Amino acid sequence: MKIKKTxxxxxxxxxxxxxxxxxxxxxxxxxTQVTNSTIKKLKDYNIPxxxxxxxxxxVSYIFDLTDIAELLKVLWYFVQSQGQNSEILKRxxxxxxxxFAEYNNEVASQIAYGHIFKFFISKLYEKAKNSKEKxxxxxxxxxxxxxxxxxxxxxxxxxxLIGIDMGLQEKDIIxxxxxxxxxxxxxxxxxxxxxxxxxxTIEKEEMQQHVFLxxxxxxxxxxxxxxxxxxAYQHHERxxxxxxxxxxxxxxxSLLSKIVAVADVYDALISNRPFxxxxxxxxxxxxxxxxxxxxxxxxxxxxxxxxxxxxxxGDIVELNNGKRAIVIKNNFGKSEQPVIKLFEKNDxxxxxxxxxxxxxxxxxxxxxxxxxxx
Length: 374
What we know:
Layout (H helix, E strand, L loop, with lengths): L1 E4 L13 E2 L5 E3 L7 H9 L4 E4 L12 H16 L14 H7 L4 H24 L17 H19 L4 H13 L18 H7 L2 H10 L6 H9 L20 H15 L11 H10 L7 H10 L8 E4 L4 E8 L2 E12 L5 E9 L6 E6 L3
Helix pairs in contact: 2-4, 3-4, 4-5, 4-6, 5-6, 5-10, 5-12, 6-9, 6-10, 8-9, 9-10, 10-11
């Protein structure tokens, strides 16, 4: 399958995987043939692209996307109700959750949400642990309006993969995933970050308070560990002491917070924001590696490099021999060496793929990303 911008899809395309919004609602089901009404619906919901069936491309999404959609649904209800309405949780056939969701008061809701967050993070962990190739190059359906929810879930996913690669124990990875899911939810309170300009000094200082608010949110959910809550407080600390709120240095920052710091920055950089365009995948990847041992923990970056590829399927790249190619698949453990296909363009500027497929080696390498799907 491959990514295709909504503006470019046509009625010949077949949807490869479910398209869902930030509330977990399925907008277009897998295997649906695109129609004009499909295109209109995607545009109405501001879905920037979809995945269509194409055997020439391979995207590794590792996790069960049904679990991802359900987790988005739970997260959305939690934020909208400020954790005080657990009515939606009755639909999950889990005794510990149903029992407290029946009461649907503030205390019972916090207990129910604590259980459900750990339940879904455990499912993501099991799926990732059992995956043979942990190369994660899936891009979700985010836009400026729903950024917070998709960002939170994707940072949790990336953090879990890094934690597994670093050999963390299951309990620590669950704490990591839960903390990564909840760490930034207080950003929903700062509407000025949605403006198309950089923040002024006062706004920056106010925005930095989200680490305290996020810590309180996580700490007040029943069953959420101190290690998980600490992630919200420390995820903007940096290895060299240049972060906030306490300007902690490497040895003073928890390992789980160091992992989320890397996942958070990478995922934010590859996202379009009101105040800037998204970085190309290689630019964001290079930023993380360039700051290894400076802003970010070196061991965390080593694992990041193994599981997050430098290029995304569909990226058009320029090679050192002057030719251009399109990335069709990533190789696990070889994050700078994807499988590519050379191409040429016709008079209508359509891309015509050639038959020969090249695996990058020491003689052929990518200079830069010329065009990315985002």
